[in-house]
Amino acid sequence: MSAADPNAPHPPARAHPREKMNWAAIRTVVAKDMRAVRRSKAIVLPMVLVPSLLLLVMPISIGLFARSAPTDQVTTALRSPLVQNLVEPILALPEREQIVVLVLGYLLSPLLLVIPLMVSAVLAADGFAGEKERRTLESLLHLPISDRDLFVAKVLGAFGPAVAITWVGSVVYLVVSNIVAWPVMERPFLPFAQWAVMMIWVAPAIALLALGLLVIVSSKAKTTQEANQLGGAVILPLIFLAAAQASTLLLVPVPMVLLAGLLIWAVALGLVIVNARRFTRDRLASSS
To answer: How many Cβ atoms are within 10 Å of 284's Cβ, its own excluded?
Structure first.
């Protein structure tokens, strides 16, 4: 696709730092992106299949296995001096409940953080690269909206669905896990405080962190496939890091979980602000 016609009407490219955001224009771009997402099977299918696997298939199958697994080896491992202080909430439970809570509450739950990363990556890849593939980039460039507001609209268009899917998915997960564990627990065990804070506070921060890294990647890529490939190289380390560290967050006091989330929010917002200042229509048009 060629760059935008220089003779065509062009909106003001840069917004003054103190200029108010044009929320009406931002909502228009976000709504347009949502319509494009709903029409694209290549975007919708990964956002349905991966959460279904994580939220339904895995907790049911692994939870059923954990219910029938022997508890003596698990209890011995949990009483190791290396981890005993961290896993006191699990050790306080009856032995027959420990493995179910350990597996569904502490080992499998961190995989929920893969959802905001995955959804953010899919939507961010489509944010600008998808406009180029659909040949709608030129009309996007001529919208009466500043570069800053256009960037914010693209970020919000991916951030909102990523958070919504994560929160709805977490509710599905806790319902399924409580049902699977009921024959052993005879009571709901999810959510507990750290789990709730991680889903409500930390997961959205992780989604924004991914977007801060990936939206610029999408603006430089020429196709959605290229954006996915470049984004995968960026997002995979975050997925491994999130899955590895989330179990620890579930075992530490709530203030530490809040602090970890605050740090992620700070880094994510910093990335978004820096990228918003660097983003221009000219760079986007020149990469098309």
So the answer is: 23
Shortest CA distance to 204 belongs to which of 115, 76, 124? Answer: 115
Q: Could you give phi then psi for residue 74, rounded to 5 degrees?
A: -65, -45
Q: What is the pTM of this model?
A: 0.81
* Cα 280 from Cα 216, distance rounded (Å): 11
**Neighbouring C-alpha atoms within 13 Å toward the C-beta of 99:** 19
User: Which tokens is 248 given?
Assistant: 């620890």
Q: Cα 36 from chain centroid?
A: 20
CA dist., res. 260 & res. 245, Å (int): 10
Query: For residue range 184-196, what is the model confidence (pLDDT) as tens digits?
Result: 888 999 999 999 9
Residue 57 banded pLDDT, cuts 50, 70, 90: confident
Alpha helical stretches, state H, the chain: 23-39, 41-52, 58-68, 72-78, 88-91, 95-100, 114-127, 129-133, 137-141, 147-185, 193-197, 203-220, 224-249, 254-278, 281-286
Dihedral, CA of residue 217, residue 219, residue 223 and residue 225, to nearest 10 = 30
Phi, psi at residue 253, to the nearest 5°? Answer: -60, 155
